[in-house]
Amino acid sequence: MDTEKHNPVQSAGKIFQIMEMLAEEGPCGLLEISHHLNINKSTVHRLLNSLIYMGYVKQDEASLKYHMTLKIVNVSGKVLKQVDILSISQPYLKCLMEQTDETVHLVKRVDNSICYIQKLEPANTGRSIKMASFVGMISPLHCTGVGKAIMSHMSEEEIHSILEKERITPKTEHTILDTQQLMKELSQVRICGYSLDNEENELGVRCIATAINDYTGCAEYAISISAPIFRMPDERIPELAALLLDVAGKLSGELGYHPAT
Q1: Helix-then-strand count for the chain, H and E
Q2: Up-side HSE of residue 105: CA atoms within 13 Å toward CB?
C-alpha cells in the first residue's frame, strides 16, 4: 500500500490504518481487518494487542470484535484546544489580500451576530479604502456577506429563530428586509458556495464571502473580500470566488474538516 511505501516506520503506518478502519467501520473482527487492509493476521493481532495495552482499542468478550475507545477523543480535544485560528489563518488571508489587492476579513459567529477578528488591508494606499469595519466590531448576520455565508449553513428553523429575535433592520437602503427574499438568497449561497453583500451593510462597499468549516463541519467562521463597488463588478466575481473558495477549503482543512466523498 502507498502508506507502506512512503512511511519510514511501517508498523506505525499499519497501526494508524487499523485505527482509521475501526473509526470508520465500527467493531471489526481480526480476519476482517486483515483482509480489508491486506496485512498479515499475526501482524494485525500484535498491533491490536499494542493498541489495547495503550487504551485506544478494546475487544468485546462476546463477539471478539475490536472497537475504538474514547481515548482518541480525549487526545483530539487537547489538540483542538491548541488551535489558534488567527495564527493559522494569517498566511492564507495575507496571500488572499495580496492576490486580490483588496481588504480581507475573518469573522467569528458570536450568538446571533458576527465579530470581526481579523482585517488585512492592501499595502498600496491608493487601493485601500476607508471602511467602517474594525477588529472587535459586532455586526448583524442578515446584512453582511460573512453573516449570510454562516447563515447558509443553518437550518431554516434556526434562521427564522434568529431573525425573530434580532428583527431585521435596515443598515442601508439596499439591506434585504423581506424574510422570503433572504431565504431565497441563502439557498443560492448553498449552491454556489459564496455570498454577496451588495451595499447592504455599508454604502459604496461590495463584499464576497464564504464560511469556514471546523472539524465537526460547523461553520462558526467566515472570510470575505471587500472592495468599492466600482472595483467589484459582476465580471470580477468568478475570479474572486475561485480565490476565496480555495483559501476557505485550505483553512477548513487546517481546522480538521474533511468533506464526505
Answers
A1: 10, 8
A2: 32
Centroid of chain to Cα 106: 12
- Number of residues that this document lists for the chain: 261
Contact (Cβ atoms closer than 8 angstroms) between residue 67 and residue 57: yes
> E-assigned strands of the chain?
57-59, 66-68, 103-110, 113-120, 138-140, 195-198, 205-212, 221-228
Q: Could you identify the residue written with the cell 485601500?
A: 128
Separation of alpha carbons 202 and 227, rounded Å: 11
The rounded average pLDDT for each run of 10 residues, N- to C-terminus, in the chain (261 residues) is 48 89 92 94 93 93 92 72 79 94 92 90 73 85 94 93 83 91 94 95 94 88 95 96 96 85 58
